[in-house]
Specification:
13 helices, 3 strands, mainly alpha
């Protein structure tokens, strides 16, 4: 799911020689590690044993990786959960408004679908598993709407970003009274890695839907900026008492506009630095003219 990041990391997958037999040991595929479950919703964590690779196969493997290049692969976030666990978590969401993101809500959800409440014990981080399931479910629903394509037609990139962030935040509007608890759970040290991963996947999906194909430092900058926009809008939403969160969406539009204006300013500053580093190389008048054309 974390499409471009996973493919970029594939290029640092390495082969090393063992000291004994001259055979090569290949570390686990980074694509597999990244896409594996980190939500602790199963009792036994997945392991990644070393795989052996014959020396004659190494050149073929390296060539295949180089030729493949970055790819944008789709993955269903819901697939990380066992079917019975998913049924319990889905049912538990209906009790969150009354019971919060809690073990009690999960027990109520288990009873609703006719599963023994003891299944809650299979979730190693209980409340965190419920919040993370909700985040994954929202991401999949957002992806489904992106793939439908109808809502993004005829929109420029900044409008697409505002639209998709709004769609995603509207999914948690009905839980707004309990969302501070969800944020607190996500901020727990044990839960931060998964929370970070889920938000990174979200902003990556949004940038792809906006048409971004960056592969250099802009890739990281864009996702960092959008992550900040998403988080600040999410916090603003908690204190918004306007009808249907009208003020929140105005706040969001302003932040996105500021970000795109900043991008233009950064490009101009970058060009200035390059020109200065090259000793200007042309008249000041010609330099200013090129900047204004950007």
């Amino acid at each position: 799911m974390y499409r471009t990041a996973a493919n970029r990391l594939l290029h640092i997958d390495s082969l090393i020689k063992s000291s004994g037999g001259g055979r090569l040991i290949r570390f686990p595929s980074l694509r597999t590690v990244i896409s594996s479950s980190q939500f602790s919703t199963t009792v036994d964590p997945q392991t990644f044993p070393n795989q052996t690779l014959n020396p004659s196969d190494s050149s073929t493997s390296s060539l295949s990786t180089a030729e493949d290049g970055p790819r944008h692969e789709k993955k269903n976030p819901r697939a990380e959960y066992e079917e019975e666990q998913a049924r319990v978590l889905q049912a538990s969401l209906r009790y969150v408004i009354r019971l919060g993101w809690s073990e009690e809500a999960m027990i109520a959800g288990a009873k609703e679908v006719g599963v023994s409440p003891s299944i809650v014990g299979s979730f190693l981080r209980k409340e965190a598993a419920l919040v993370e399931f909700f985040m994954d479910d929202c991401l999949q629903r957002l992806i489904d709407r992106i793939d439908a394509g109808e809502e993004l037609q005829h929109l420029i990139p900044s409008q697409r970003i505002s639209k998709l962030v709004r769609i995603r935040l509207e999914m948690q509007a009905s839980y707004i009274s309990k969302w501070p608890q969800a944020i607190s759970i996500q901020a727990h040290p044990f839960n931060v890695p998964t929370s970070f991963k889920q938000r990174a996947m979200l902003v990556d999906e949004i940038w792809h839907a906006a048409g971004d194909e960056a592969s250099d430092m802009d890739w990281y900058v864009k996702r960092t900026v959008l992550g900040g926009i998403y988080s600040t809008t999410e916090i603003y939403m908690l204190t918004d008492s306007s009808p249907e969160f009208r003020d929140t969406w105005l706040f969001l539009d302003d932040r996105v506009k500021d970000a795109f204006d900043l991008k233009k300013t950064i490009h101009e500053a970058k060009y200035l630095a390059e020109a200065v580093g090259a000793g200007m190389g042309s008249s000041l008048q010609g330099f200013v003219g090129r900047v204004l054309q950007r």
